[in-house]
Structure formats: C-alpha cells, structure tokens
Amino acid sequence: MYRFFVIQGVSAILVFGGSKLGLWPVPSLAFLTLFQGVVAVVLTLLVKGPRWWLPLQFLFLPALWAMARGAIPAGWYGAGFVVLGLVYWNTFQSRVPLYLTHRETLAELDRLVREMAPRSFVDLGCGTGTVLCILAAHHPDIRFVGYEVAPIPWLIGKWKARALPNCTLHRKSFWNISLSEFDLAYAFLSPVPMPALGQKMIREMRSGTSLISNTFKMPGMLPHSIFLTEGTMPLYLYRQEGNGHGRIPPACS
C-alpha cells in the first residue's frame, strides 16, 4: 500500500513543482488537484498498480482539497463511515483487511489449479469473489466455494458469480465451517490468524489435500513448495500428509 502514497507524492511534486516553474498554466487550485489526479492515474498504470487504485488515485487529492474547503456536506462523512464499515466489517476484530489478489498471482494460481486438478476449491475470505469467479470460469468441472463476512464485498462477489453454476459464495466466517470437504484451500489473510489457520488445516483437512497461502506463512509449518511471480508476493503451498494429523513435509529443494 505504500506504493499508493509514493505515487501520490511523486505526482504532487511533478504537478505543483511544474506549476511553480511555469511549465503549465494554473487556472485554479482545483484545476491543479484534478491534474495531479490524472498524473497519479498515469503513474499507476505505468507501474502496473492494481486497477482498483485508479479511481482512488484520481480522487484522493481533490477529495482532501474539498474537505479542507468545507465543500463536502457533513452527511457525506457519515455515509462514508457506514460504507467503510460494510466493506471492512470485522477487520478490527479479525485483524484481516480486504486484500485483493494481484493479477500475476492469480495467473499463477490458475496454473496451479490446472496442474493439481482438485475436485473442490475453497477461498477463505473471498472478498469480492474475483479469484473464485475467474477460476470457476476457467475450470467448469471444479466446484468453487467462498466465505466472506463483510456485506458489500460479499454482495459484489455474489453478483459476479450469478452466471457460474460451479461457484457459490456464502456470507459466513470460514472459521465456523470444516475444511474436510475441500481438496484445495486458498487464503490471503494477514500474519495474525496464520497460526490458527495452520491448526485448522491440521485438524480438518484430509490426507493428500492442500492449502495455498498468499504472502503469509503458517508459523511452525514448512511449505511443500513456494511459488514466486515477478513483482508480487510468494504463494506458499502446504500439503496435508499422513492420516490427517497434519504432518507437513519439508520444503522441496
């Protein structure tokens, strides 16, 4: 996320520094803030930042400027608070923010699903359902299931999956379900719940099944494989072996 603010800073320096040097006219401060938003969008595209950053990059400084001028009615702040609550929901309790899987990582995940050919796949905290819907469209013979507690991301995911008969999203915590029915699980959480997730895998997943964690390791458990994609964080593949008691093999050399 630090890249977001770096882009904001660089674009602000370019725009406002250029105006001081007389490189372009300055009709008004409002014009400069909008121009900075355009430059921030261009920089985001150049560094291949997430697409969902684009409207945020464009609106970030203009919104701050409007707030400073008192141009935004007070009711909008309350509405914004409600919307953020519906998006992030129990983040304060779970310590798991809304992470969106990078497209390069998703392509690697798609390759792994094709090679592993599971009969069922579960996304633990599926957010807006992007991972599930893309994989379900590419692999119609696999059953895809997602669990998400935040209302707005879940609704977005349900809408995306409306035409995919092999994809189901539940508004429910994955901590309250058993992983025993799934061949492959995927999680993009945070460091905080990873110890508990490792124990859940050991208790519930069947022998021969696997869990892929995006970015974050499960402490005390060695991944079976680690997959790296350029410019993104690693995918850690953990495999349940033995009789279901969770003996995790050493990392592959």
TrEMBL record:
The keyword S-adenosyl-L-methionine applies. One of its GO terms (biological process) is methylation. The chain crosses the membrane at residues 28-47, 74-92. CDD domains: AdoMet_MTases. Keywords: Membrane, Methyltransferase, S-adenosyl-L-methionine, Transferase, Transmembrane, Transmembrane helix. It comes from the Bacteria. One of its GO terms (molecular function) is protein-lysine N-methyltransferase activity. PANTHER family: FI06469P, METHYLTRANSFERASE DOMAIN-CONTAINING PROTEIN. This is Class I SAM-dependent methyltransferase. It comes from Ferrovum myxofaciens.
